[in-house]
Fold these 3 entries.
Entry 1:
Amino acid sequence: MLSPPPLALYVHLPWCVRKCPYCDFNSHEARGPLPFDGYVDALLADLDHDLPLAWGRTVHSVFFGGGTPSLFPAPEIDRFLQGASARLRFAPGLEVTLETNPGTAEHGRFEDYRAAGVNRISFGIQSFDDGCLQRLGRIHDSAQAEAAVKLAQDAGFDNLNLDLMYALPGQTPDMALRDLERAIALQPAHLSHYQLTLEPNTLFAARPPAGLPDEDQAWDMQEACQARLAHAGYAHYEVSAYARPGRECVHNLNYWRFGDYLGIGAGAHGKLTLGAEQRIMRRWKLKHPTAWLTAAGSVAAIGGEQDIAPAQRPFEYMLNALRLVEGFSLAAFQARCGLPAEAINAPLAEATARGWLERDGDRVVPTALGRRFGNDVIALFLAD
Ligand SMILES: C[S@@+](CC[C@H](N)C(=O)[O-])C[C@H]1O[C@@H](n2cnc3c(N)ncnc32)[C@H](O)[C@@H]1O
Ligand code: SF4
């Protein structure tokens, strides 16, 4: 039986000062003044339209992602959060994250975000090496990044995430470790450490930068950085995520545990379990900000909708759950997918025989080898 899991709210804010050459997110360079006010009105209309999918359910986290959400003035974030909490039940003390580009941090801004109800800031730092930052086309240098983090801390934020990328053009393992040292010195609660990937349809994919480390070098960097982070008290809990005890990201954990989420804003994706109908559905919104803005609040803003059929659920579940160091329990698999545990007997047996997964009673945990060959492991769960 499918039972509705915890619910999260994702809010997409699609503009950036400048488009980074490696980025394939739905983010658009701001040309001229941005329609903040109209966008927040449209977000609330979009939420109204999605509400029937989430009647009576409690929201456990809100995530403003982008794009660069920190381009939005605090009063607009405040207006959205007030409107959303009037429409949906917010769990007491729920996690509210705002992604922030250090190049947009102004004095006084963080106090106002905090007063609006934001309690977690996720900074896109990428590197503390000014040469690397330039090659990545970032709008800030390392001094600005450090200053922005300190401004947030001075405003009382104690739940900070720093995004770093590694395997950067021209980066040696020592340089990657030096980036980490500077991040650790700022004492964030959480660190995301992403391997730079060349995403299709980006400038970097069209013209790859010189000096990119190869896969083996990238793996060595990842292992050295993971060891350094463990030493500093950051537990590795997901492929790219590290946290101090109890500071794992509630919002992202819900994705990885195959929880539900409403997705509002341009190009946002949602996943909802409809218990009464025994369905799991995905809904996504029109990608282009102007098209979405015009249609928000009506059926025309929906870019598409699709059920996750029972046969597809094991693969979709593993795509998320096998990213987690803790793996998953068979009981959780059954509750989230509405399938008997026997549905995955064959791929589980094969992955275990290959040394990719380990069984401990009800729990299934990826081994170090399984984490390295994650895509091969997940592929075993594809429907025929
Ligand atoms: C949507 S961005 C949010 C932060 C904000 N837009 C910024 O860049 O400052 C989320 C994070 O994804 C990571 N990211 C983006 N493109 C990537 C790529 N091609 N490879 C690896 N990580 C990437 C970056 O670390 C980035 O901070
Ligand atoms: S600032 Fe962030 S979202 Fe915007 S283009 Fe750069 S990486 Fe992408």
Entry 2:
Amino acid sequence: MGRITRLPEDLANQIAAGEVVERPASVVKELVENAIDAQATRIVITAEYGGKKLIRVEDDGLGMDPDDARLCLERHATSKIRRADDLGAIVTLGFRGEALPSIASVSHFRLRTRARGSESGTEIRVNAGIVESVVEAGGPEGTMIEVADVFYNLPARRKFLKSDAAEAAQVSRFVTQLALCYPEVGFTLTSSGRKVLSVPPVTNLSDRLYQIYGDRQDLVAVDREFGGLRLHGFIAALAEQGPVRGPQHVFVNRRIVKDRTIAHAILDSYSVATNKERSPEVHLFLEVPPDRVDVNVHPTKAEVRFREQSLVHEMVRRALGDALGKGPAPELTLRTSDVLPGQPMQPAIPGALHGGSFPSRWQTPSNLREEPASGTSGPNPRAEPSSVRPMIALGQFRDTFIIAMDDEGLCIIDQHVAHERVLFERIMEKLTSEGLESQRLLIPLVMEMPPAERAALVAKAGALARFGFEVEEFGGDSLKVTAMPALLPPDECDAALRALADDLEGLDRGLRLEDAVKQIAATTACHAAVKAHYPLTLEKMHHILEELRATAYSTVCPHGRPVMLRITRREIEKNFDRI
Ligand SMILES: Nc1ncnc2c1ncn2[C@@H]1O[C@H](COP(=O)(O)OP(=O)(O)OP(=O)(O)O)[C@@H](O)[C@H]1O
Ligand SMILES: [Mg+2]
């Protein structure tokens, strides 16, 4: 006699449930996705004790007739695909016909549904996969599903559930994500009697974001089409005060997914633009023609497989790159009412605008250390085209801001952050080739420094050497510096090394060398860059503007501060009543 038997259906369903239903939140996700597939416009979700005790999802969608209501609880019964070909281009969230039977096999389950336009509905109760009753029932059009005591018949699984609060948090995370994907649908989530989310239907993503997160000046829009794909959404701007961490929501064809290719491209985009952001907030929606992505690769559909992975990577990188720094500089709006009565606007602020007549450290003949740096000026070969147009420098305001113009308006450039951006790029560029030029100090610099900071510098002596710094322990509390980067002014060496010690000491242990290098580059650039309150010649201003133009990410500094502000031609003409 053979040893193989067919498993009874309820046991087969329980096994399937092991994959589909990880926790209460996955039940919520499956039920809400079904409601969305049924064209609901309003979905009301209730969860008690993080969904462990009760989950209820009510929708005003298509509903089911009595036959479908019975069928939907059978395994592999679905209205969403019919033949193998359909798998190649799935347009609904569900398609396997597995979720409901799986959920019903591990809970006390109640379904009440009424098809649109039909007189009455159906109510079905199931316990641990066994249908207890099927009766005709009233109720509104649409579907209501109640799932009580998930895993009550599988104590081993129930034990693995987290605290009520942790499960509730996961439920609200999924509902929030689905709400972001479907702005046209209204969502209400009540968790243990508390209304967590309540968003009526709206017509677009910005309105939905506003409903959920309020006014967010710190997010920038992304919208780009490339190679038949479209990416849109909002991402954390590179603001100085901007969040370093935040929710990362990535959706592919309006599905919640975790995708390594996209996650990598996001990190990549931020890390070339700034050395600060690590896991920034993003809400990104990728649209891919359904025949170019396989959604049937993961038990809870949490992953997808792209036919052209590198295209997706490239697309995300470009779109984010544009949005982050190569996008337009922030625009200033002129307000005539800002001029206080009795304080006539002066035609020019005396002494504020000048050029040419002030000494500059770039002109000082003895200042040979600048030579190697300026010798490498000119377009950075690896830089992508910048969004900055050719500009004519007009002068300097308060020895801190360069005032310039192009065809499209006036620009105010922060000389320090602009130069810092330029130097950062140049340093990173040099590091990938031969390393930075070094200048040997005639008299070594001996610095007193606390042990932890000294140790941090010495531990990274190898990385520092690529920048041109040579440092060694000098006994006692001292550190000896024998060489420094050529582009750093000697009087900045002490401050730069102290800042570096501070950075490196503060960074996590086990930090990747790459991150340490970026940090060193940013700090070196900051100390080598022209300072605020420092007079510049017109020539030098022009030089900074030209270098900036040749720099990718020219509108943000490595720390994320804006480099320039614009007053557009339109704004000027409008205010002079010329248009
Ligand atoms: N809220 C609902 N409103 C109307 N019909 C529904 C609803 N929920 C489920 N159904 C019907 O029941 C069927 C089975 O649902 P189930 O979630 O088990 O499978 P599916 O959505 O087709 O695929 P998957 O297992 O991938 O979710 C669906 O195909 C759909 O026809
Ligand atoms: Mg489903």
Entry 3:
Amino acid sequence: MVDELITKEMVLAALRKVQEPELRSDLVSLNMIEDLVIDGGRISFTIILTTPACPLKTRIENEARAAVISIKGVKTVDIKFESNVPSDGRSRGLMQLPIRNAIAIASGKGGVGKSTVAVNVAVSLAQTGARVGLLDADIYGPNIPTMMGVVSLPPPTKEKLTPAEAYCVKLMSIGFLVKPDQPLIWRGPMLHSAIRQFLSDVEWGELDYLIVDLPPGTGDAALSLTQSLPLSGGIIVTLPQLVSLEDARRGMEMFRQLNVPILGVVENMSYLELPDGSRMDIFGTGGGEQLAKEGKVPFLGTIPIDAKVRAGGDNGRPVIIEDPKSPAANALRSIAEVIAAKISVAALEKNAAIPITILD
Ligand SMILES: Nc1ncnc2c1ncn2[C@@H]1O[C@H](COP(=O)(O)OP(=O)(O)OP(=O)(O)O)[C@@H](O)[C@H]1O
Ligand SMILES: [Mg+2]
């Protein structure tokens, strides 16, 4: 008797048992399997992902492999992945970056929690299945590597720098390229070229969101950034008190002058929850909402003061990861959700997300 042949139908039947967790249907019904090749006991195929997200991808890969390897006679399973994100319509003279949405986080004032918001929003978005990059544009005081718990970059390829990765977020920071105790004396032109290089010389791959953490102030970094890539939106972080609002207004004005749509205002360190459940307004109250109202932009939410937020920043485990059920994590997650919703509405209004271009 001849050995039983493995047929395409058998492989597809096995893959019909594997669900796409988000879309709640199987890989075959969703037309996600392509290039199926059967060579004796060696099976290879490509899975076309609709949401090429890092946590889901691993799960789908494991389940698809397990399903196919269980077919009698199968020895190896080789799975490739592709995503069906529309390809770039290349324009002459423009370098295309496959980043669908770049969002900058700013404030007028330092130390209000921009980096904290950037890190936790990026991780939250990645947890929903989006492909997320985090760019530390604070080249004077880069904090993202510490906050994400990463010390160095992976080896570069011949042409480009490889971003680091933590919690399914790709990240790049000047902090990876200089020694921690080395003073950063950048002159304007160098700052501009550093930011451009972060965009053009880093292998970001395809991203649904690039979150950009801006340095404090209303300065050169934001200008360089917007000259290098069109931003889908800007977010202003403020504390509730008046002096912070004055600075935040300047941040808002900066986005306006740079023609960046303002996605909204986040109020950080809004209150401290006391052991008896009451709230103490350490920095005053309501300022963020007031600022949003007066600027006619959305208010995205408040984040309480929580020692875990600070600790998470210092030890490289964002509060979204370390204590996902805490009020601060919930607040940050819902801010990320609102941001994603606003971006998708804006994209729909524009009819489609247009790939970002960098001017040569
Ligand atoms: N809601 C919060 N509760 C407790 N600590 C917080 C909160 N938000 C931020 N922090 C802490 O406050 C400090 C300043 O936050 P962060 O570095 O995010 O601010 P920043 O605006 O990026 O500062 P800079 O302007 O220096 O870049 C950090 O130590 C951070 O962990
Ligand atoms: Mg910062």
